[in-house]
Amino acid sequence: MTETIKDDAFDLLEALKAQLKAHELDAILIPHNDEYLSSELTPDCERIATLTNFTGSAGFVCVCINREDALPLEVANRKDESDLRKIEHEQAVFVDGRYKVQVKEQVNEDVYDCFNFAEITPAAYLCAILPKKSRVGVDLKCISYQYYQDLKQALSIAGIEIVPLEENLLDLVWEDRPKAVCSPVEIFPDEYNGCPSMQKRQALAQTLRDRSLDATIISSPETVCWLLNIRGRDRDFLPIINCRLVAYANEALEWYVNLEHLSDEVQASLEDHVGHIDIFPEVGFDDVLQRLSSSNCTIYVDPRNTNAHIFDVLYSHGAKVVKGLGLCELPKARKNATELAGEHKAHLKDGVAMCRFQAWLDDLTKASNITDLEGYQRRVEDIDEAVLAEKAEYFRRIEGDFIEPSFATISALGPNAAMCHYNHAEVATARKMGTDPLYLIDSGAQFLEGTTDITRTILVGPNLTEEMQLMYTLVLKAHIALASTIFPPGTCGMQLDAIARRPLWEYGCDYEHGTGHGVGHVLAVHEGPHNISTKSSNIPLEVGMVTSIEPGYYEADKYGIRLENLYEVCPCSQQGCQHMLCFEPLTLVPFDTRLILRELLTPAERSWLNDYHQNVLSVIKNAASTLSDMEVSYLTTATAAI
Amino acid sequence: MTETIKDDAFDLLEALKAQLKAHELDAILIPHNDEYLSSELTPDCERIATLTNFTGSAGFVCVCINREDALPLEVANRKDESDLRKIEHEQAVFVDGRYKVQVKEQVNEDVYDCFNFAEITPAAYLCAILPKKSRVGVDLKCISYQYYQDLKQALSIAGIEIVPLEENLLDLVWEDRPKAVCSPVEIFPDEYNGCPSMQKRQALAQTLRDRSLDATIISSPETVCWLLNIRGRDRDFLPIINCRLVAYANEALEWYVNLEHLSDEVQASLEDHVGHIDIFPEVGFDDVLQRLSSSNCTIYVDPRNTNAHIFDVLYSHGAKVVKGLGLCELPKARKNATELAGEHKAHLKDGVAMCRFQAWLDDLTKASNITDLEGYQRRVEDIDEAVLAEKAEYFRRIEGDFIEPSFATISALGPNAAMCHYNHAEVATARKMGTDPLYLIDSGAQFLEGTTDITRTILVGPNLTEEMQLMYTLVLKAHIALASTIFPPGTCGMQLDAIARRPLWEYGCDYEHGTGHGVGHVLAVHEGPHNISTKSSNIPLEVGMVTSIEPGYYEADKYGIRLENLYEVCPCSQQGCQHMLCFEPLTLVPFDTRLILRELLTPAERSWLNDYHQNVLSVIKNAASTLSDMEVSYLTTATAAI
Predict the structure, then answer these.
(1) Looking at residue A480, what is its pLDDT?
(2) CB–CB of B505 and A494 under 8 A?
(3) In 10 A of CB B106, how many CB atoms?
(4) Which member of A17, A266, B38, B349 lies 3.0 to 4.6 Å from B399 by CB, making a disulfide possible if both were Cys?
(5) What is the ipTM of this complex?
């Protein structure tokens, strides 16, 4: 974070405001996501980071040129007057609870107000700051239709009009905007995906016919890649290529994709792998929408993962649209036997890697210096968050069929862990070991067999307090409470979320992020439609779904704790509960028992933890013949019953 | 339940089918509720009971005259083929989980199919049984607009049309239909309601102005009675009079009510009590809707508690309607200090009454005979569910300011308790004591100070099994789990529901009803908008709301267990949790500790129970100087620490 970046950004802000004026707008709302509504952005779509320096994976920016003196904003669920928030500037950044610390580190608060959008929505802000009948520009490509509808309704209270933008005004003034990425299409073999593309296509067409629909638009690239059993490298962490697809009830598929993705060779093998599909350049997609709209087809579209521009074109050309959850979303989320077996293999590799990493870290904290990756001697005090992250990645990379990390590793020492989505690569100086008691690492991998995601909080230094141990124990209790829950079919994530929070609530604590997210199979590490959170998680958990369980606790400027495993949703095998569902662990990595206040665990919680550790020990030891004596010794100690 | 009733009902069914034919309908959907959408019906609206003999408080009947051979119906979340349900008849009754046993006892299954609508909705049934383009008649007055919209959408899949009925076709052929009830309006004094009507009216008008609305239609009589601080006796258990109201932003109120409710004397005192209101006969309400619609007013209406007919008139006359949660619903649910103090007083009386009842019952089960209410000697074996219910009501009645029971007492011995909403008065022979180990009593009162509702399951006889003790203990654990939960502001019932279910889920068990409902203040014992259930309970719990917590377990043909207390939502006083909310018990009645498997309770659960009992003992003993030695002795034993 340098002053130069901020100065550049300031010029950009001024240029953007000139555009607002030229377009007779009073304000603009800039969403974080790109036109695929993806949160993993390619560099050419890093609009908020370029403008404000905020690099989080979700958020909005509002820029106004015609503000009124607004009253202080009412904060949702505020406790007292001090919660009222003043509006000081003409522009504001809105982030969620995960980023409330990070946003203040990254964004210049002399220029931007920073809000948590659980407390103040961009819509409430715009209603407060703008005169009635103001015009707010939005690039409809970067928001979902669902969000567009909600936004329109919220702004209508203050008589504010949303003006759909023909061009993205920020892109117009973004001088050195990077070029779009275009990676080659890769065939994802049936031995890994477990279901030929033709079979998925036939099932989709059958669903369309069953529901008297003619076609469906799939505008999420992950879903297209799942359907076609392909992958790509357009983005870091998310092995997809940018594309869209129209599927018809007669099994025909039209694929809209930048043709640079496709060599002749790939095109030829694609036909073998997928069957016949009609391939068109993606730039013509608006024309397709117009043709579809005037064809008297009944078209099925998901308003939550399709951008508002697509709906705008459909509706303005008289399309017959049926809205609902994307027809591939549940089939994609219900992993098949091959995918699940792959996930277990991937997690075994990941478990070996993380166990070796933790053994290495354990050794490191005992020694005063270690041999680092390049063979140099370093003092513990020279080891920083970047070295730690590289080391964890190294242990994963040496396992076979590693593609890439499944997201930017969160490697956070001491107070940095209080930022849920901290990235050491985005601060001026990564923090060094030696003074902090706690280290949080949230990391994962894309292996060819599956996708992993795990968080551990580990004792690495002096100054551990009893409060930290208490909070670690409460977060562990929260994790175990949900992980050990048996529940009936039909139960959705919103029903389960509070089971994890309850042990923290009991001490007046909470965490401002979801409790769990679905995980794609060699696709997005955050994949719906199911999740476990306080809101909008009304999709029942079903057999074969994968979910994280990751409660946490964050004390700003001090420390952060999160304990995350992935679980497979399975039929329960317990006597009398065979009609129920349960969570079977995928993740095979010990929790740090040194941080537990044992007397706070119930016998049932201790028993869950000891059983989990017993299984980690036996599976990892059996599988990893290459473990060193030191690593075996670490693992044996780390998994010892408490 | 006699054959005669069934024969009468059969004639009525045939007459109804003739009406369907005459109106060129293929089917009719008959909802349980009346035109106020109330589930506590006056006799003239007991349509489903008259037609089918089913007396439950919720349900639908479908009658078809033009059915197809439908495939077996797919049951939601079905486990295997045996769950598929065949359609055998031309008519079906749909009930919820609470009534799945009762419906089969009451309804002639040679005439009606009986379905649980959590598994098969009336809409799915109609889609399956009717040819495409069929016409289904519905009296729009008896369904909410929200339900009407959902129904239209669900039926549109099969191209089935809903035909709004001008007249209720069942009423046309119902020969000895009772007359509508019309009780005098009673002033509900400010010393009990705690907030003058004028103050409520001003706050409502302010809300209308704040939201740029001109008027709101209040079509729930409970809400009108709350706003005007009046009560009445139009129905058993629910002390209201039937009426509707239009409130304007300028504070004017128009009250639509059968003028027979109002003596000159009451009209005069009403003006003092409420301020000026314009009173009109309710029969003219459709004209008012038309006038409002064409007046260019913006009218606020709640689609969940307003019938579809009202919306139909509004929309067909071009009204500008804004839909949302009724503007009085949250103010009514957030009880004021006077109402809460009243609830505590009412629960103290209720606690004394229930403690004396339980002491009497305890004595009864020890003796071989007792002196009954009329002074006669009876053998225990002659005491039936009706006598027990009367005795419980007797102990309430002798406390001061008792108005009436707050609902029909559920007094159920042995297997009858497996019917969640069993009513001994509706079966041929009430069950007698002597052979069943368990007795379930769910009862409550309308006192002038407040409304009570409590369920206990009590050991009253031989043959107790360990399974019953296990299930009692699990239901108690479920109750304690939720009752002891501390939670942040903003938490809604759907988030909390599973905390209660989890201890039962762990043993593969569950209950097919909500975990908790809001309770009105000398109004409906089931009052929203908040509740605690698996679905549609997205209203946050707030300070001052009252809710039941009532998990249960039901083993058909064997026994039923439910443990219900009412709680007030309060700020938490625990150190470090002052920003959180918690449940403070209103109910003051011991749980039957003889039924508990002590070793299954955690120390924290035992401690909650012992603290609760300690409080019950001290409060009841202090308050009730009239307790006999026997009653004090019972209470001391019943509340002893375990």
Answers:
(1) 98
(2) no
(3) 22
(4) B349
(5) 0.85
Sign of torsion over alpha carbons A530, A535, A536, A542: positive
Overall residue count recorded for chain A in this entry: 642
Average pLDDT of chain A to the nearest whole number: 91
Cβ-nearest to A498 among B77, B495, B577:
B495
Q: Which residues pair with B379 in a beta bridge?
A: B369
Q: What is the Cα–Cα distance from A343 to A448, expressed in whole angstroms?
A: 10
Cβ distance of A508 and B79 shorter than 8 Å? no
* Cβ–Cβ under 8 Å, residues B52 and B61: yes
Per-window interface: B 415-434 vs A, CB < 8 A: none
Q: Cα(A203)–Cα(B391) distance, rounded to whole angstroms?
A: 63
The contacts of residue B495 (CB under 8 Å, 6+ apart) are A494, A495, A497, A498, A534, B487
Residue B152 and residue B297: Cα distance in Å, rounded? 27
Phi, psi of B52 (to 5 degrees): -120, -10
State phi, psi for A431 to the nearest 5 degrees: -75, 145
Chain A positions touching B501 (Cβ under 8 A) are: 487
Dihedral angle sign, alpha carbons of residues A380, A386, A390, A392:
positive
Chain A residues with CB under 8 Å of B572 CB are: 508
Take residue B154 and report the two structure tokens written for it. Answer: 């669900």
- As to burial, measured by CB atoms within 10 angstroms (0-12 exposed, 13-18 middle, 19+ buried), residue B176 is exposed
> Per residue, what are the HEC states of B284-296?
HHHHHHHHHHCCC
Residues of chain B predicted below pLDDT 70? 1-8, 70-71, 74-83, 157, 368-378, 536
Taking CB atoms and an 8 Å cutoff, what residues of chain B touch A494? Answer: 494-495
pTM (predicted TM-score): 0.89
A497 part of contact set with chain B, CB < 8 Å: yes
| Residue-wise pLDDT tens digits, A603-615 | 999 999 999 999 9
pLDDT at B543: 97
Tokens of B518: 């809001």
A574 touches chain B (CB under 8 A): yes
| Environment class of B65 (CB within 10 Å of its CB; exposed 0-12, middle 13-18, buried 19+) | middle
B210 touching chain A per CB within 8 A:
no
Chain A touched by B533 (CB under 8 Å): no
Q: Which of A383, A410, A354 is nearest to A561 (CA)?
A: A410
